Amino acid sequence: MPSEPMTRAMVFDLLFIKGLRADGALVELLRGEGVELRSLKPEYPIRVLNRCVDATCAHLYPDLEIEDARLRLGRGFVQGFVQTLLGKAVAVGLPMLGPVRYLKRFPDYVLMDDSPLRVTLVQLGERTFRMEFRNEFQVLSGFMSGVLLEWLKLARAEATITTERHSPMSFDLHISW
Predict the structure, then answer these.
(1) What whole-number distance in Å separates Cα of residue 74 and Cα of residue 93?
(2) Rounded distance, CA 51 to CA 156, Å?
(3) The model scores a pTM over 0.85
(4) pLDDT tens per residue, the chain (177 residues)?
(5) Residue 115 belongs to what H/E stretch?
(6) 3-state DSSP: the chain helix, strand, coil percent, rounded to 5?
């Protein structure tokens, strides 16, 4: 039987501590989901991350559709990453790298976390791409859209992303600008 997919504490730190600056009720909400922000474990099951993302969406954005709220959290994750030394360096270099080269490298970037994400990029036109996510576990497409939109914005591309979902574990993001 395969082991449960995990993600590193770094994801929780970048999203909830640095990106959202969680305090008060949000800290308590996350504690209820099994995540103590003041003493993060080295890694967590991805299902715990997904539960924390959705609970945070309901808490912070109760009037938004879930995918729109997840998109905001994805952007918050990038904003948290940009507060780190590595993130600042990446953000400074993104305009020189450009959106096309950034997107072509994105499948490798998700592996930084030893993530079990399987991502393939297909270029359809000069500024049109399909990013395919094929996994053995649920991936939140709205969150990933937010991550990509925020990085592309830092690369000076105001992109639009639409989702074509095939299953809870499989979807395509259609990206253009």
Answers:
(1) 20
(2) 32
(3) yes
(4) 457 889 999 999 999 999 999 999 999 999 999 999 999 999 999 999 999 999 999 999 999 999 999 999 999 999 999 999 999 999 999 999 999 999 999 998 887 666 678 899 999 999 999 999 998 888 899 999 999 999 999 999 999 999 999 887 899 999 999
(5) none
(6) 55, 20, 25
